[in-house]
Amino acid sequence: RKPITISSLQTLYRKNEPITMITAHDFPSAHVADHAGMDMVLVGDSLAMVALGMEDTSEVLMEEMILHCRSVARATKAAFTVGDLPMGTYEIAPEQALESAIRMIKEGRVKSVKLEGGKEMAPTISKITSAGIPVLAHIGLTPQRQNSLGGFRVQGKSTASALRLLGDAFAVQDAGAFAVVLEAVPAEVAALVTKKLSIPTIGIGAGNGCSGQVLVQVDMSGYFPPGRFLPKFVKQYGDVWSESMRAVQAYKKEVKSRAYPAPEHTYPMPKEEFFEFER
Ligand code: KIV
Ligand code: NA
Known about the structure:
Blueprint: H1 6-14, E1 19-23, H2 27-35, E2 40-43, H3 47-50, H4 62-75, E3 80-84, H5 94-106, E4 112-116, H6 122-130, E5 135-140, H7 146-149, H8 159-174, E6 179-183, H9 187-196, E7 201-204, E8 212-215, H10 217-220, H11 240-256, H12 271-278
Parallel strand pairs: 1-2, 1-8, 2-3, 3-4, 4-5, 5-6, 6-7, 7-8
3-methyl-2-oxobutanoic acid (KIV) is lined by residues 23, 42, 44-46, 84, 181, 204, 214, 216.
């Protein structure tokens, strides 16, 4: 498979072919994503919860994001990689954001960065893109701002809020973002924003009128214990938890019963050599 670039993403967009994106947080999950033919792989700061067991994304450090980006980048041969800038590494000033973006590229080995925010982030997006680093914007529900948004709530539900979203979308486009994630936005709003923009929109909880879709891999593949809360927009395509559980429990049982390891898992020794050894 030929590596996906900014221009092949633009080609998909022009052809109106949906862009596929999924998160990965380590070497194996990136391997799956790349082998399955995803166009884009995101090392989201959802890493905080799905890989590091943190309460929310505000806790994850740049160093941790970089470590995981490096492992994902090693497995990602064709998909276009994006690293999420964690909270606190880009909001102070465009210069701070550029410094963080450069670290993400140089140390994390990803090809682009993502950051949350609309209009207010336009100068920051300009700064990073003018240094030759592609920026994926993220508007609508921005989880890093959950405390000021009053939790995880759908954005753009009222006329005023939808207009604000559209303004943010134009602002990040004009600032040079190569695409924009729309999270938790009514489908008809996301579809209209997509129509009006000239860059791709990547939806999550934003209906099928977007230019592409993204989901968190552990959510869509079902790699979590039963009973965990899932947002309405997640479709669970697999049951990785059950398969892992089945395998680990079978292994446990066979170790306890000495069924494992069987002769075929064991290294042989010539009988006469063992005979000598035994004496
Ligand atoms: O952190 C993340 O995984 C994300 C995607 C869900 C867009 O930001
Ligand atoms: Na994120």
